Amino acid sequence: MSLDKILVLVGGLAAIAWVNWYFFLARRTAASAAMTGSGTQEISIIVAGGYTPDLVRVKAGRPVRLVFDRRETNPCSDEIVVPDFGIRRFLPPGARTPVEFTPQGPGSHEFTCGMGMLHGRVIVE
Question: CA 51 from chain center: how many Å?
């Protein structure tokens, strides 16, 4: 096998390893939602190449407001989808967009970009 074929093979394997780490093994940043005066659990999520935090803990039976602060113009992040609550919302660049729902029971609910490339999770306790 020639050197150029070995380099292409090693590069391809490195790319596969990076994609698997990024989408499946990367450490999540967790945060708990804070209670507002009106009894709503609220947390701000920065959208810039991903979601920060990408793991949010809330209590069941109380309204939740996730405020997505989109700080980029990447077309992948122009929409937020929370399938378990039937939510699909456009996120304008440079704007803060609230998404509200009330989880009734404990569970885990994923949120993604419209393309399914960026991932986050709401853990209901």
Answer: 4
* Residue 34 resides in a domain: yes
Quote the CA–CA distance of 94 and 63 in Å, as a whole number: 25
For residue 40, give every residue at least 6 positions away whose Cβ sits within 8 Å of its Cβ, in sequence order, or none.
62, 63, 64, 65, 100
User: Do 49 and 75 touch, CB atoms closer than 8 A?
Assistant: no
Whether residue 115 lies inside any domain: the answer is yes
Label the pairing between strands 30-32 and 55-58.
parallel
Chain segment 74-87, per-residue pLDDT in tens: 999 999 999 999 99
- HSE toward the beta carbon, residue 101, CA cutoff 13 A: 20
